[in-house]
């Protein structure tokens, strides 16, 4: 099982964005038909949100989406659930403790990017965290033009149609995607999911 706990950075200065985040996450899950969302994101306390998942690939996708938004520290817990209630707030088990430890470390600025992974296998958790931090660093450095092209490419049937939708040449579109390291990040997403999955005691994610 996987638990994502995300805490907003500096909400006192920038204002709380929990409600907007919950809407964007719900839209992403619906539009991309992401599987394995056992308990959808909800506010847990203050400016913090949490979700319970059974799918490692979905966990990676949602983590990177949170990193795109630039203002969320993300903790990923991997482990067992002792009691799964209708709400993640009322649920319990080691995975929730791991997620709490992870988000506190991610928010503490002791990691290169605000992502941390904690689970029953520290060695695998370290490997998964290192890869996700690298991916997060790339995602957080993408330009608005890069994101515009990535979003178009995700929905368009072909690269040429994506370029046309943005109003640029195929060559310019290719340059934007290359600068955003789109293919490179996509290429290692299965590896990141595999590292998380290897830690899952349920072994179904």
Side by side, the strands of the main sheet go 2-3-1-4-5
Rg for CA atoms: 17 Å
CATH hierarchy, class of the largest domain? Alpha Beta
Number of beta-strand segments: 5
Largest sheet: 5 strands, mixed
Helix content: 40-55%
Q: What can you tell me about this protein's structure?
A:
Strand 4, helix 4 and strand 5 form a beta-alpha-beta unit. This protein has about 200 residues and is α+β, with helices and mostly antiparallel strands. The chain folds into two domains: about 120 residues, 2-Layer Sandwich (Alpha-Beta Plaits); about 35 residues. Helix 3 packs across helix 5, helix 3 crosses helix 9 and helix 7 packs across helix 8. The mean pLDDT is about 95. About 55% of the residues lie in helices and about 15% in strands. A five-stranded mixed sheet has the order 2-3-1-4-5. The longest helix has 19 residues.
Provide tags for this entry.
alpha+beta; 205 residues; 5-stranded mixed beta sheet; Alpha-Beta Plaits
């Amino acid at each position: 099982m996987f638990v994502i706990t995300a805490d907003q950075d500096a909400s006192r200065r920038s204002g709380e964005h929990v409600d907007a985040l919950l809407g964007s996450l719900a839209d992403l899950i619906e539009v991309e038909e992401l599987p394995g969302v056992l308990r959808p994101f909800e506010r847990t306390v203050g400016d913090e949100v949490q979700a319970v998942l059974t799918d490692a690939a979905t966990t990676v996708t949602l983590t990177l989406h949170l990193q795109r938004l630039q203002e969320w520290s993300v903790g990923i817990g991997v482990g067992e659930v002792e009691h799964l209630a209708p709400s993640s707030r009322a649920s319990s088990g080691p995975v929730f403790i791991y997620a709490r430890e992870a988000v506190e470390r991610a928010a503490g600025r002791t990691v290169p990017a605000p992502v941390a992974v904690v689970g029953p296998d520290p060695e695998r958790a370290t490997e998964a965290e290192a890869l996700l931090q690298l991916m997060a660093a790339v995602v957080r450095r993408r330009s608005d033009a890069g994101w515009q092209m990535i979003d178009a490419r995700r929905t368009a049937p072909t690269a040429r149609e994506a370029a046309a939708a943005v109003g640029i040449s195929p060559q310019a579109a290719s340059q934007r995607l290359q600068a955003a390291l789109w293919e490179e990040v996509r290429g290692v997403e299965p590896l990141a999911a595999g590292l998380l999955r290897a830690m899952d005691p349920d072994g179904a994610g």
